[in-house]
Amino acid sequence: MYWEPDSECMHREELEQLQLERLQATLNRVYGRVPFYQRRLDALGIASEDVASLADLARLPFTHKTDLRDNYPYGLFAVPMREVVRIHASSGTTGSPTVVGYTRNDIRTWSNLV
Questions:
Q1: For the chain, what is the total number of helices (H) and then of strands (E)?
Q2: Which of helix, strand or coil describes residue 84?
Q3: Distant-in-sequence, close-in-space partners of 90: CB < 8 Å, separation ≥ 6
Q4: How many whole angstroms separate alpha carbon 1 and alpha carbon 51?
Q5: Cβ(20)–Cβ(55) under 8 Å?
Q6: What are the tens digits of pLDDT across the range 94-113?
Q7: H helices present in the chain, as ranges
Q8: What is the pTM for the complete model shown?
Q9: Residue ranges covered by each domain of the chain
Q10: In the chain, N or C terminus with fewer CB closer than 10 Å?
Q11: Residue 65 and residue 75: Cα distance in Å, rounded?
């Protein structure tokens, strides 16, 4: 069983602050590392510092399966390929295949959850 008492027992305000900080960090990371997201956020006039609350999450665009296909195979990866240790690819039965890469940290996190 997965149990993270530090985060699962936080007061709501602390949890929301942590979520906001992680959201802003994610926006900074993808903006600096993934040209697709840089273009998309620029087109919407959104910078990470503009996301001041979790309510601002509603302003962020969704990533659709067509985005994955249009940037096939590795166009949405936010890490260098040398850090990718596992790749999962769809068969493309309903269209073009999609690819997702995982780092060692992703695998470690994933193994803690299942």
A1: 5, 2
A2: strand
A3: 97, 98, 99
A4: 33
A5: no
A6: 888 889 999 999 999 888 87
A7: 5-8, 12-33, 35-44, 65-70, 104-113
A8: 0.83
A9: 1-61, 63-114
A10: N
A11: 13
